[in-house]
Amino acid sequence: MVLLKRVLVLIFSLFFIAGTVATTSSCKSKKTLTKAQRSNMKAAYEELKRELPEAQVTYEDDKVKLVLPEALLFEVNSTQVNPTYLPTLVKIAKVLNKYPETSCLITGYTDTSGSLELNEKLSWGRAESAKTALLNSEVKNKRIFTWGFGPKNPVATNETVEGRKQNRRVEFVFLYNYQGQNKPQ
Question: Which domains does the chain carry?
Answer without folding.
Answer: 33-176 (3.30.1330.60)
